[in-house]
Design brief:
Number of helices: 13
Distance between the termini: 174 Å
Structural class: alpha+beta
Number of strands: 40
Shape: rod-shaped
Strand content: over 45%
Largest sheet: 40 strands, mixed
């Protein structure tokens, strides 16, 4: 055997002995590797500035693994008491020899113990170009997808995780406490339930110091996206969320408690108005103590209006879907000052306000803008303006008091048609007080109808003081210099109004309470105060009038009394037939007026309901004739059943009637005379049959009145 062969054999034997010794040692013990201990610490410091304390690094031979590196404990000094225990790195010796330690194939498992008494099992796989976190799990947290970190560029890092409420409370305890103490808002209980697992998706870019939350599940089903930039001790946060309506109301309810007022009504209105989901974007800057500043909240979505404001057949309403956008800015959370700007697109909203006959049609362009700077703990005054509008314009101020009452300041309403006025007033606890002044107002839909039942009206009470240069009233009547005072509370109402119609004045009073409904109208010309189709226009042409109506509450029948002066009875088939009865001296002069019969005064009393005019008792007199009418009129079938008297020479009769004692005895009541024609009128109201009793034409009333007089005295 040559010398060289002996040397080679000796070396091989030595190597076998060395490796055998190492193998035996690794099998039953371990070998310390100080070089790796230093290398790992240096590597982490170079990569991201993290200082770690490595206890020791050992090489071991483990069953089912082979060669492995064991690190009993690593302490991360950059954080509070984070320890990485029992780290086992399954290494490939040949991969390390050929690729180097960083690029070799290594499987690592560890146990992480955090300062908050949390422990995580961690498994990492190192491949040629990246690290893969295969497992990171605790009782309240685990990753649902592998986390891949590139070795030469580990930004950004995508993390899909699943967590519980307890995990949030353990790891964000400091911040949750700050929010609860400073803002009385328990974030943990508000957003999460116990023992429920929630999903989240994060993207971390350590290079740009940026955290992006793509998904963050919660019990309110809020779709949440958040971008956080952290630098120089500050966090620049941009949060975008999509919130279901019910849950947004809950959030507003929690936040509004800071206002220290009763917010139930306004929150109920808000809850009823929100449609589907709302978009909320929040931008702010916060420090480590969570003291936000430069706060901007952008809310957008749709409002759904479906309000009916009264129980009338012709009821007021607001309906439709309206997109909106609200910008709310706050410089600091330490004060109560806010700046707000918003717009609401009302093109698809249609509304009707019966009290002023104001109509906003669907597809009519109307964009309402709101701007204000206010103190949350004081009155909130909002400036309203309309833009991009076809007809309707709203401009003015609406204030929300600290007690959540609405106050109207010079709210101008115009629609280029039947509305041109300003409103000042308030709405407090559904009690409306309004002063309305302007050039045009439309009250034509305020029709009086019998309705004694107390309804659940939107308003508890309504008080109006109205003045308008021009006012549209019922049946197309147009009034000038019109004023009205209205005081309404449920089924009780008091109305006082006056004005001019075609240069004639009128006054109107109505009072309704729990017992009676009474109205009084005084007009210099009653025909001017009624519409073109009113039945009175078929009877008289003009005349001063005082009309009084009375109805007991619960009754459908109304008693009417009308005092007339200087009026003209229109020539109709009925009146002409009536006056064609055998004439007397003086009657022919009355008929000379082709347009009708002029009377000096008269009176009409009757009862009315939907079916009939009943108990009609009327008279009319002038110098030449007296007329008495009694009977009933069938309104539905338009049938008459009337009787009465026509008395000629009424001037003479009137003089006699004024003689003490004998005047009443000889003449009788108003409209009666010494001589009279008694008649009946039956049939169609447009062309009735008129007849008289010839035997009564010249029948003296003296004997009838004498008998009536004596009978009355005997009874008394």
């Amino acid at each position: 055997m040559t010398r060289n062969k002996k040397i080679i054999i000796s070396i091989l034997v030595g190597l076998v002995i060395v490796f055998s010794s190492i193998f035996i040692k690794l099998k039953f013990s371990s070998i310390s590797i100080p070089y790796l201990k230093t290398k790992i610490s240096t590597l982490m410091l170079d990569l991201n500035g993290t200082i770690i304390d490595v206890d020791q690094v050992k090489l071991r031979l483990m069953k089912d693994i082979g060669f492995a590196i064991e690190i009993p404990n690593i302490k991360i000094n950059s954080f509070n008491n984070i320890n990485i225990n029992n780290t086992i790195a399954d290494i490939d010796i040949f991969s390390i020899l050929f690729k180097g330690f960083l690029d070799s194939d290594i499987n690592i498992s560890s146990r992480l113990d955090l300062y908050s008494e949390q422990s995580f099992d961690l498994k990492i796989v190192s491949r040629d170009s990246n690290f893969i976190i295969k497992e990171l799990v605790s009782d309240n947290f685990f990753i649902s997808e592998d986390i891949i970190i590139e070795k030469d560029n580990y930004y950004p890092i995508d993390i899909d995780l699943i967590f519980t409420k307890k995990f949030i409370e353990q790891n964000f305890k400091k911040y949750l406490k700050i929010v609860n103490e400073d803002y009385a808002f328990d974030l943990s209980n508000f957003f999460f339930d116990e023992n429920i697992f929630y999903k989240s998706k994060l993207k971390i870019n350590l290079d740009y110091k940026e955290l992006y939350i793509e998904r963050f599940d919660n019990k309110h089903n809020i779709k949440l996206e958040t971008k956080i930039n952290y630098f120089d001790g500050e966090y620049k946060i941009n949060l975008k969320s999509v919130i279901p309506n019910v849950n947004l109301t809950k959030i507003f309810n929690t936040i509004s408690k800071k206002r220290e007022t009763n917010n139930d009504k306004i929150l109920k209105t808000l809850s009823d108005s929100l449609y589907k989901e709302q978009n909320i974007e929040v931008k702010l800057v916060a420090n480590d103590e969570l003291k936000p500043k430069e706060i901007e909240i952008i809310a957008s979505g749709q409002l759904s209006f479906n309000y009916r404001f009264d129980e009338n057949e012709d009821f007021s309403y607001l309906k439709g879907i309206a997109p909106y956008k609200i910008n709310l800015y706050k410089k600091s959370l330490l004060d109560d000052f806010y700046k707000i700007s918003s717009n609401i697109d009302l093109i698809n909203v249609h509304s009707y306000i019966r009290q002023i006959n104001l109509v906003k049609s669907k597809n009519e362009k109307l964009v309402l803008t709101v701007n204000s700077t206010f103190d949350l703990k004081k009155d909130i005054e909002l400036r309203l303006e309309t833009k991009n509008t076809d007809n309707l314009s709203l401009n003015g101020n609406i204030a929300l008091s600290k007690d959540n009452h609405l106050i109207f300041n010079n709210l101008y309403v115009s629609n280029k048609d039947n509305a041109d006025f300003s409103i000042n007033g308030s709405l407090k606890n559904r009690n409306l007080i309004a002063k309305i002044t302007g050039d045009v107002i439309d009250l034509s839909k305020n029709i009086i109808k019998i309705n004694d039942k107390v309804k659940g009206n939107y308003y508890q009470s309504e008080v109006y003081n109205i003045f308008s240069r021009i006012a549209y009233l019922n049946s197309g009547v147009l009034a000038d210099d019109f004023s009205v005072k209205i005081n309404k509370k449920k089924n009780m109402i008091k109305v006082e109004s006056k004005g001019n119609i075609l240069k004639t004045s009128f006054d109107y009073i109505r009072e309704k309470d729990n017992e009676a409904d009474v109205s009084v109208i005084k007009s210099a010309n009653i025909i001017n105060t009624v519409g073109a189709n009113h039945s009175a226009r078929k009877l008289i042409k003009n005349g001063e009038a005082t009309l009084t109506s009375y109805r007991s509450i619960g009754s459908t029948q109304t008693s009417i009394e009308i005092d007339l002066a200087n009026f003209t009875l229109i020539n109709t088939p009925a009146s002409l037939k009536l006056l064609s009865l055998p004439s007397f001296s003086g009657l022919s002069s009355v008929l000379n007026n082709e347009s009708g019969i002029e009377f000096a005064y008269g009176k009409l009393a009757y009862k009315v309901n939907e079916d009939a005019y009943s108990d009609i008792n009327a008279f009319a007199v002038n110098d030449g004739i007296g007329l008495i009418v009694n009977g009933n009129i069938d309104r539905k079938n338009k049938k008459l059943n009337l009787d009465g008297q026509i008395s000629p020479l009424h001037l003479i009769s009137g003089i006699i009637q004024k003689i003490p004692f004998f005047g009443k005895l000889l003449i009788g009541n108003e409209g009666e005379g010494i001589l009279a024609v008694e008649y009946t009128m039956v049939g169609s109201q447009d062309n009735p049959e008129v007849s008289s009793n010839p035997l009564t034409i010249f029948k003296p009333r003296l004997f009838q009145r004498t008998i009536d007089f004596l009978n009355n005295n005997n009874i008394n």
